[in-house]
Amino acid sequence: MKKGILLLVAALLALHVSAQKAENLALTPPMGWNSWNTFGTDINEKLVKDIADAFVETGLKDAGYEYLVLDDGWMAMERDENYNLVPDPKKFPNGMKAVVDYVHSKGLKFGIYNCAGNKTCAGYPGSRGFEYQDAKLYAEWGVDFLKYDWCNTENLNAKGAYQTMRDALHATGRPILFSICEWGDNDPWKWGEEMGHMWRVTGDIINCWDCKVGHGTWSSLGVWPIIKLRKDIRKYSGPGHWNDFDMMEVGNGMPVGQDRVHFAMWVMLSSPLIMGNDLRSASEETIEILTNEEVIAVSQDKLGIQAYCHSDEGKIEMWAKPMADGEWAFAIVNMSEEPVEIDHDWSWHPVKDDLSGRSLSVEQNEYTIRDLYNHKDLVTTKKNLKATIPGHDVLMIRLTPKKK
Fold it and tell me: Which of the following is catalytic: 72, 167, 204, 393?
């Protein structure tokens, strides 16, 4: 008997030691859609199918978006007699497997939500104490992505709680992308690479340029407060492990110029590109921004280095992102409400990224300059870059060394 117990303990220890997050996922920032920003808990089977259809019909799937993630509110208020999670029978009358199969039939991947606490943020059953049982259920349904929140987690250790769910996902044998939604409270960038594929660095986003909206014990932040909240964390981001600046608000009511800035900055910061708007009614301008293949290509660059703020002159901020093959991307953002003219001399503004050790060597090389939103070539770095940037808008460019 003792020998059998020892063998069992050894097997369990071996399983724990070998447990890890799924490999070869999120080698570039994940792209997809999440229900929360627009729909909250008002979700159902028809909505999921309609959104899946919209992925295909609007060209979003072809542009690289692949994860359709169902957020909080999908389950019934109680587990069943076997303590399994149950999809709300009114919202999902055919069960979750049928919904997942439909999403897969469109060539997409399906994501689901739960929470490390005993209840989710909206009060539904959380996974605390049921991690392995819930992970097994997700795998049986064919889930590809788990967003794991941090509400109702009193007395839990964040790193330990996310490790438990990571190990539970690993035990299923199914490659499931693990999204850590811990809001940055416990510095997840310091331990997240070992536990998951992406981690939230802030609280919830809200659809505004520069605002903070209080909700009692926590606040929602606009685009720029989120960008400026965290410093010195870019070194933790890279292929397979990304700083997540939250779902995007593109198409959710901000002016189109601010939407362009928002999208450009999420690309520059190598944040996952998770849409949060209603794809069924998205405007042509919104779809044009979200499907811009030249901008998306910067996000999906294999080098995977997060941009840094190269210069901040008050009205103008210039963000720089080193890329593979000696290329660079820049987002030149007009922070003011009025148009601003720029006249940029590359030789007078040396560009060097201390993190990667890469430099923009305009003295040794000539670079072509491509306007990514307007799809046109500009001057080379041998000449000053001159442009007028509308208020709260962006000039996003890609510099490519000319072949000698």
Answer: 204
